[in-house]
Amino acid sequence: MKIYTRTGDAGQTGVIGGRVDKDDARVEAYGTVDELNCFVGQAMSFLNGERDKDLLADLLQVQHELFDCGHDLAIHKPGIREFKVTADMAVNLETWIDKYDAETPDLTRFILPGGSAASAALHVCRTVCRRAERRVVTLARSQEINEEVRKYLNRLSDLFFTVARTANHREGIPDVEYVRSAEVFRNRK
């Protein structure tokens, strides 16, 4: 199989059910999800294979689920393929958020992204995830989508925030509070 096909040389690409311009809102949405998946892989490379086995396993599952999101977003004509992203996937993320949040100290103020290399990379994942979510919102204004993808991405950004804090905590690096932040979070534990 050849990697190059030359079919996109005129500025269009294939989606499930047709061809669209490469800057179509659908391509922007699933392309940003693909970018996020790359950043997740990079963040995983900064985690400790022994200490962070649970995080690595959960993030690997997230990578598979991001491919599912991309699949669903690439469906140009609803009904020609079944959606892969389901409501239970977002519920599963909530379970992980609660589990990892219980590991970290209480949070009352905004924090600065950073600390360990893993934490900084996971914060990048959080912000790219938010951008992907915005691209999906834009797409949904004009075209039909699987609404579960938007919910999943919304919850996923919360997971990235939580696991970024967990990565710092496991390395013994405290979160750095934003010095001009008021107390904005209540104890959720």
From TrEMBL:
This protein's pathway: Cofactor biosynthesis; adenosylcobalamin biosynthesis; adenosylcobalamin from cob(II)yrinate a,c-diamide: step 2/7
Keywords in alphabetical order: ATP-binding, Cobalamin biosynthesis, Nucleotide-binding, Transferase
GO molecular function annotations of the record: ATP binding; corrinoid adenosyltransferase activity
Top-level enzyme category: transferase
Protein's UniProt keywords contain Cytoplasm: no
Residue ranges of every copy of the Cobalamin adenosyltransferase-like domain listed in the record: 3-167
GO BP term, pick one: cobalamin biosynthetic process
A Pfam family matched in the record: Cob_adeno_trans
Subunit organization: Homotrimer.
NCBIfam families: PduO_Nterm
PANTHER family, A to Z: CORRINOID ADENOSYLTRANSFERASE, CORRINOID ADENOSYLTRANSFERASE MMAB
Record protein name field: Corrinoid adenosyltransferase
Organism in which the protein naturally occurs: Paenibacillus aurantius
